[in-house]
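Project outcomes to date are best conveyed with an example. Our students and postdoctoral researchers have been running inverse folding experiments weekly, and each run begins with a structure described purely in tokens. The record below, which covers 132 residues, was selected by the lab manager from last quarter's runs and is presented without edits.
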């Protein structure tokens, strides 16, 4: 029977005093652009399903019955508006994220940083295979 030893570790204290704003900017741009692409793809898929199943025509017919004559959805205009709103959203979210990181830096200067306790484990020694 092989005896499995307990891994030993030591507690190490780390302090984050500053977050690099350039790194935050790059990460935020990539993150929000990916989210933007996912939302636009989902909207395109939902529009395609609704249009092919006839739901768009049903909604337009219902709006005419309610009293809004000539009520129409213009898909190309809606797509451009959603794309523009999304692009502005990416820009606004990126700026907000960078400003938040800058605020964290300012607060960190006043309070001494963000403290972490990390447990560093010692690597297990590798057992050699017997050579035959």
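After processing, the design step wrote out the following sequence:
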């Amino acid at each position: 029977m092989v005896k499995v030893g307990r891994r030993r570790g030591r507690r190490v204290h780390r302090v984050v005093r500053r977050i690099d704003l350039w790194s935050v900017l790059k990460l935020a741009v990539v993150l929000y652009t990916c989210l933007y692409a996912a939302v636009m793809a989902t909207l395109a898929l939902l529009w395609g399903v609704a249009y092919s199943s006839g739901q768009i025509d049903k909604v337009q017919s219902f709006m005419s019955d309610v009293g809004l004559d000539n009520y129409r959805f213009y898909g190309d205009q809606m797509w451009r508006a959603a794309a523009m709103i999304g692009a502005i959203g990416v820009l606004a979210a990126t700026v907000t994220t960078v400003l938040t990181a800058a605020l964290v830096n300012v607060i960190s200067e006043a309070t001494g940083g963000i403290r972490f306790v990390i447990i560093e484990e010692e690597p297990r020694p590798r057992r050699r295979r017997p050579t035959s």
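The chain is about 60% helix and 10% strand. The longest strand covers residues 9-16. The training component of this project remains on track.
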